Write the structure tokens for this entry.
Amino acid sequence: MLGHHDFSHHEYVNSMTDTITQDISPPNKEKRNNNMRNRVILTFLGMSCLATLTMAQANFGTSLHATRTGKLYWYGTANNGFQSLTNVPIDSLGCNGCHGPTNADGVAYTGTYAPGCVDCHKTGFFTQDSLKESQCLGCHSRQKTESATLGYTDVHRSRNMKCWDCHTSNDVHGSATVFSSMLQPGGIEADCEDCHKTTGGTAPLPNHAAYDPHGGKIHCTACHAKTVTSCYSCHLESQIKGMKRSKQVLHDFVLLANRTKDKKVYPMTFQSLTYQGKTFVAFGPFTSHTIDSLGRKCVDCHANLGGTIPAIQEYNSTGQITFARWQASDSTVQYLKKIIPMPADYQRSFRMDFIKYDGAPTDPVVPSKNWSLVKSTTDGQHMFFATPLTELQMSKIGFDTLKTTGVGSEAATPDRFLLCQNYPNPFNPSTTIRYALPHASRVKLKVFNLVGEEVATLVDRDQTAGMFECRFDASGLASGLYFYRLRTDGCTETRKLLLLQ
């Protein structure tokens, strides 16, 4: 019997081929040739898969999963993060070494942690069938909290979709571009419109353009996300000791801002922190995994259309939005819910109480009322990858922008003609009407009663492009419904207002 050590590899293959072609009958010869072809094909496919996997992993070393630079981007001194106030480097917080309790093989992490394939993939298995969402949720705790702790449903989870059904290989393994945060444009490729297109896609939707009053400027999630989440008042003294402690999880609210990535109104959340009497809060876009197919109604966001939005009501009354209040009597946090539009002057007007844990930083992390107020002002804050609503946007949903102070002027030239809903409405006896002109024009703004009779001329002159407002004093007029009409060169718009004497 001859072994392959008696021949060179080339000679051995030729020898076996000669034997096959000479010694087997035609049917067996065809079968043997088919088997050989199948082996070649399988080998080629295996090599192709390996090459694809290798390419997918080529950028892992510079991916956010490997570098963990997203945390430093928010916390570090380079961007005036909380480290600027604490002087505690991020390496002292354990954030860069964050991981789940075990790797994908089920083995507990020991020694110095270094990100790698086994965080997500079982050793030797690189297929989606070997992945478990528990490995994702070991670090992405807010998404775990949404479903496992708070019990929110999601249209994608209800269809048994997994993280990797939406997120691309570049999202997970990195790409040729090095990012400092997943919120940077391009840092996360997955978006609703990847599947939900008006034509084509894996889950086509009706064409919203025919009835979308926002002109495509509101992201899908601003209407369809049921909530965002945040842990309230991260206690940094405990974090230094390896104890991830906060007072509680807040939910049932959605902050709204303008996402830098696509300049659309998008959900946002926050992270509040305290350390040795210092307070800080950071705001940024948040992709909620609590999507509802029905979405919100107009009155959920528009106070000027009859909606009851506590955040807007408080702003219009006091010029502030007090998001969270500490109740010392029972050691609880009372906070605003529903939609919370982030006002243009949020650095002045958005307020919250900052609290601290009064026990030992090494105490077990369990629900506790051993907390107390630090103060209601912040020593530092920032908002990345998003901007607050503009005054023009605020006026369109019922904010009294006469109370908006301490911000720069509106965009130099509005991008379109706009007649805003008057505020307040209903009113007695006066109200404010705002409008935007994208270019210079002759402007006429008049008020009419129900039978079409003119009762007041508020504006009748040439005006340059910009944002304008005027007051309408209805003293002497009877209570009831009126109309105000703005007419410019080539454009006319009319709205209702209600006078209650």
